[in-house]
Write a structure and sequence with these properties.
Radius of gyration of chain A: 22 Å
Distance between the termini of chain A: 32 Å
Largest sheet of chain A: 5 strands, antiparallel
Number of helices of chain A: 16
Structural class of chain A: alpha+beta
Shape of chain B: elongated
Largest interface: A-B, 7 and 6 residues
Strand content of chain B: 15-25%
Number of helices of chain B: 8
Helix content of chain B: 25-40%
Strand content of chain A: 15-25%
Oligomer: heterodimer
Number of domains of chain A: 2
Number of strands of chain B: 9
Chain lengths: ~500, ~230
């Protein structure tokens, strides 16, 4: 029954969020392949340092990790057999730019405004996560040597934007944000605590302890790990099928997955102004309003559905302070919206409710689906990534600050794109018309959106309307990548992928 | 008969297109190209035909061969054909059917009665095709016997001859006229804006402004401010 994954074969970034393992720094590189054979040799060289998903103990944890992925053009440049290439799904083959209508990348997020590097086609994505800047740089220097040794096989693309107005950097750096005392925090630039509720699936370690609020909700109210095939090709998914996005041969796809890389700029000045403006007409505190946008309180991530006002938050904080480590985790993730179907506590347009409605799409209709989360369980994504840049002037939008967002899923179209198109930029499934999710929605300056904070039905209070929502987050670049297993990497590098 | 659900009518029309060609291009392909080049949204000729909820035009080239039919009996004949010779198996396969003509298919869900709707099509259907003003006859021009259609009554009679029973309705519509539905949508959107703009204001001020609001949006006046049929942007 229980799935045992071959952790030596799976790339580490799929299974681990490195940030949770004290890897506070990251550097992302994008390369072009200029020569098939030398390109494959380069991939072979890098594969020797690719980090697997094997469990670490104190002594085996590396100071830096490396992972690798390829765009469809990259796989073409590596001269994969046509029969294998034809097996890749349409969304991946098209790439992110051409999916802009689905993703809502319009206006300031339109690919024509993306960073210079995205004006050409990337073939390879390489990531370095490090426990220190030095560890990242050492691995970076090693990769530069491999690029040089490829003898024109691959070129490191430049065109990333930097802190001092550069627009031709050869890498994208990212880092956790630090508090005033220099301690690393799980925050992003709007001040929210990030990365709390990633999905848990069968085959991950210690699922029993982590599955609450992060797996799939059963009819009896228990949480179970999601099917492995939602996140890894070659395994059975929630439909009890093998993902149809897998190319041939089986070994090329098995234990691999797809990754969405998106550089998301955060309009910090607009966000702060918007929050100030809106809190003038809001009956609760400014922090409560900020919490209602995201579904979690900014300071410690307390779920708004559990702590829906300032008084209950103070109460929640007391229990949280008294809880042990496991108890704290549980308080952050173990909840559903079953007692808040109308969204009176956590608004239906709040970020975490839109991206993971946790079984609330039955809308209180008894046994509407086979499982309460039947509509949710096939739309989950593993989230990776770190913030980049720093906020030097919190009143301005134009600094270098945002999030390098990465999502892992077996089917980009069914999972990531669906969430982006239907749940972030549209709300038919939530009975909210075309209200967009507050933080990530592609709000239109010409025709600014609104969202509704409902109130309890018998409260006699009017609902609250949040209006004039500006575009708070803009896309600055990105693409879709195939993250092969380590076996598949060796096959690609060896030019021995055989779909017959 | 047209199939009705409340006040809505579902119309499906299959008009055979003449076999033959003008030069190298068949009548069916000419008709298809005219359909594909129809302007959309507010410029669509269907935006002018009163009370159209949803409609589409396409050319049906042939029926699709869909292999052996399924059955609810214990087993399908195809399950046991392996016991027989290949010739016997092939002889038992269902015959392939083909259409003798290609058809112009028009399907529409609309408010009201068929005769009124078809009269609206005859009278109101108009659009600009590369500087030429086209009416409904341009689309049906190459259909069999359409050259005998000379007036509105002929058109209604012709379409009724081509009509099939239909029972699928566009689920996204109320049972009201298009004009009422568009007005309701407009009012809902304008009222939302009003609510947002008056959040937290005094009852007195809200009441005062609401009067102005009602004067502006004119809820009872169907010819007053509203969305236009086919309108795609505010």
């Amino acid at each position: 029954m229980t799935q045992n994954l071959d952790l030596t074969d799976i790339q580490g970034n799929i299974i681990k969020a490195y940030g949770a393992f004290n890897f506070t720094k990251a550097r992302y590189l994008f390369l072009r392949i200029d020569n098939g054979e030398r390109g494959r040799n380069f991939v072979g060289a890098v594969t020797t340092k690719v980090t697997s998903a094997v469990r670490w103990d104190k002594n085996s944890k590396p100071s830096a990790t490396t992972n690798i992925g390829f765009t469809f053009s990259g796989l073409q440049a590596l001269e994969l057999p046509t029969a294998s290439l034809l097996g890749f799904p349409e969304a991946f083959a098209m790439g992110m730019k051409k999916r802009k209508d689905i993703l809502g990348d319009d206006g300031p997020s339109d690919p024509i405004h993306w960073d210079k590097i995205w004006q050409e086609t990337a073939h390879i994505w390489l990531s370095i996560n490090g426990q220190s800047t030095q560890a990242v740089d050492e691995r970076y220097q090693w990769i530069l040597k491999q690029i040089e040794a490829s003898d024109g096989g691959v070129t490191l693309l430049t065109g990333h934007r930097g802190e001092s107005d550069e627009n031709d950097l050869p890498y994208q750096d990212a880092s956790v944000l630090y508090d005033a005392d220099g301690n690393p925090t799980p925050k992003e630039h709007f001040g929210y605590t990030d990365g709390i509720g990633d999905p848990v699936f069968e085959g991950q370690t210690n699922t029993q302890a982590r599955v609450l609020g992060r797996g799939k909700l059963t009819r009896s109210g228990q949480w179970e790990p999601l099917a492995t095939g939602e996140f890894l090709l070659g395994h059975v998914d929630e439909a009890m099928e093998y993902p149809q996005t897998a190319p041939a041969p089986k070994l090329l796809a098995h234990n691999g997955t797809y990754m969405v890389y998106r550089k998301l700029h955060e309009n910090v000045g607009s966000f702060n102004r918007f929050l100030d403006e809106q809190s003038e007409t809001y009956s609760g505190s400014k922090e409560l309003l900020a919490a209602k946008f995201s579904g979690r309180w900014r300071d410690n991530g307390a779920p708004v559905v559990i702590a829906p006002d300032d008084a209950s938050k103070a109460e929640w904080d007391k229990y949280y302070a008294a809880a042990d480590f496991a108890g704290k985790k549980r308080m952050l993730i173990d909840f559903s919206y079953n007692n808040d179907i109308d969204g009176a506590k956590c608004p239906i347009s709040a970020h975490i409710r839109r991206i993971n409605p946790r079984g609330s799409l039955e809308y209180g209709v008894k046994d509407a689906f086979e499982r309460p989360g039947a509509l949710v369980d096939r739309r989950r994504i593993l989230r990776r990534g770190l913030p980049y840049g720093e906020v030097k002037d919190a009143t301005r939008d134009d600094g270098i600050h945002g999030i390098v967002f990465m999502a892992l899923n077996a089917d980009i179209n069914r999972q990531f794109e669906f969430v982006q198109q239907q749940w972030i930029n549209y709300a038919n499934d939530f009975k909210e018309g075309n209200d967009k999710e507050v933080l990530l929605g592609n709000h239109d300056a010409e025709n600014p959106g609104k969202v509704v904070f409902q109130v309890a039905k018998d409260s006699g209070e009017p609902p609250h309307f949040v209006n004039n929502i500006p575009r708070l987050v803009e896309t600055r670049g990105g693409d879709y990548f195939f993250i092969p297993s380590i076996t598949a990497l060796k096959m690609i590098a060896g030019g021995i992928v055989d779909p017959t | 008969m047209a199939t009705k659900s409340g006040n809505a009518t579902a119309l499906t029309v299959l008009s055979p297109i003449k076999n033959g060609a003008i030069g190298e291009m068949s009548f069916a392909d000419i008709t298809r190209e005219r359909c594909l080049r129809l302007p959309i949204h507010e410029k669509s000729p269907l935006a002018r035909v009163p009370n159209t909820y949803l409609a589409r035009l396409f050319v049906l080239d042939d029926v699709f061969y869909e292999s052996l039919p399924g059955s609810d009996s214990v087993f399908n004949f195809s399950d046991i054909t392996s016991f027989f010779s290949d010739a016997a198996r092939k002889a038992a396969l269902p015959k392939k059917d083909h259409l003798q003509s290609r058809y112009l298919v028009f399907s529409s869900n609309f408010y009201g009665d068929l005769d009124d709707y078809l009269a609206g099509m005859w009278e109101k259907w108009a659009y600009d095709a590369h500087g030429n003003q086209r009416d409904i006859r341009y689309i049906w021009e190459h259909c069999v016997a359409f050259d005998q259609v000379n007036d509105c009554n002929d058109f209604i009679g012709y379409i009724k001859k081509c009509q099939l029973d239909a029972s699928l309705f566009f689920n996204g519509s109320t049972d009201d006229s298009l004009q009422e539905q568009l007005k309701a949508l407009y009012l809902k959107q304008e009222f939302t804006k009003f609510v947002v703009a008056h959040q937290g204001k005094s009852a007195e001020e809200i009441q005062q402004d609401f009067k102005t609001f009602i004067d502006r949006v004119q809820p009872e006046n169907m010819d007053g401010p509203s969305w236009l049929p086919g309108q795609s942007m505010p």
